[in-house]
Amino acid sequence: MSIRLPDHYTARPVSLDDLLPIVDLCQVYFRWMNGVNSSMEEELRTQWGFDFFNLATDTMAVFTADDLPVGYVEMWDVREPHVDLVGWAIVHPEHMGRGIGKFLADWLEERACQNIHKAPTGARVVLSQSTESGCQPVIDFLSNRGYRHVHNGYRMRIDFNEPPAEPVVPEGIVIRPIKNEEEERVALFAKYEAFLDHRGAIEEPFEEYYLRWKDIIRNTTYNDPSLWFVAWDGDQPAGMTLNYATTDDDPEMGWVHTVGVRRPWRRRGLGLALLQTAFCALYSRGKTRAGLGVDADSLTGATRLYERAGMYIERSYLGYELELRPGKILSRQGLESEE
């Protein structure tokens, strides 16, 4: 690699032995960025164990002479057709301004460019990154490197000052937890179909999607199938919600990972019923609040749904893209008529 590292530092891909030092780096970085004490240990341990993520080729860290990590970057390219690559990088606040951020960004962009050949001929390929909306140093850094602000996201939450409202389920629909691996597959199919209408979604074969999610489930220590709910219309899955009983930064908060409704069952109140089902389940586990992440400009109106359910915006995020190759956009940008 021809990218020059600042003096007095070394760089190498991480290994599993680096997990806890990188977790410590993440904690320092997040306290600097937003004042939140986020562990990231379980999330990193899970992600580093995925079959589709290679620590040797998809990560790079910068270390001091004492072998302490002060910078870390990872590159994700896990979905066909390989047109939307994702990067994430952090630098220890006490080591900012020394060229470490530039080194990591150069590595990330060079690494991403190595995968352009995987994309279909003539397709546009981008590298995406995000940051909190108030983190001006990172915003300026990305903008100065040619990244373009393309979307906004929210972390929303609800506080259970009283028991959450019981769901009002549309007539003919039954919502219940999944019972077995077969129903797990059904839940993931409903998720797959519902999120084809998500901004930036790229259609891929369901079997590839399913196998990737099986790997995620296998490696996620806090996965709990009893918090997976499917809405059934007879033998058809109309929607689902997948939830976790914990988050990295708040032990009192449950996490609504996903709420989705398939097209034929939308605009009937099912999304709200699924969300309220999740709230009730998390509350029954002793959680005093629940959170989720959402596209601020959701094509299906998810933000408005969450606000109706009593949620409010806790933090906001900015999404940026760097065009690696111009061409035809393959990801979803809007909804065609459903009539």
State the total count of DSSP E strands: 12
Write out the CATH superfamily name of the largest domain. Gcn5-related N-acetyltransferase (GNAT)
Largest sheet: 12 strands, mixed
Count of discrete domains: 2
In the CATH hierarchy, what is the architecture of the largest domain at level 2? Answer: 3-Layer(aba) Sandwich
What's the assembly state of these chains?
single chain
Rounded to the nearest angstrom, the distance between the terminal CA atoms is 53 Å
CATH class of the largest domain: Alpha Beta
Topology-level CATH name of the largest domain: Aminopeptidase
Low-confidence stretches: none
Q: How many helical stretches?
A: 9
Strand percent estimate = 25-35%
Distinctive features:
Aminopeptidase; 12-stranded mixed beta sheet; 339 residues; 2 domains; alpha+beta
What does this entry show, briefly?
The chain has two domains: 10-119, Gcn5-related N-acetyltransferase (GNAT) (Aminopeptidase), CATH 3.40.630; 156-318, 3-Layer(aba) Sandwich (Aminopeptidase). It is an alpha+beta fold.
What does the model show?
The chain is α+β, with helices and mostly antiparallel strands. 30% of the residues lie in helices and 27% in strands. The chain has 9 helices and 12 strands. The chain has a 12-stranded mixed β-sheet with strand order 1-2-3-4-5-12-6-11-10-9-8-7, sandwiched between helices. Helix 6 (181-194) packs across helix 7. 33% of the residues are buried.
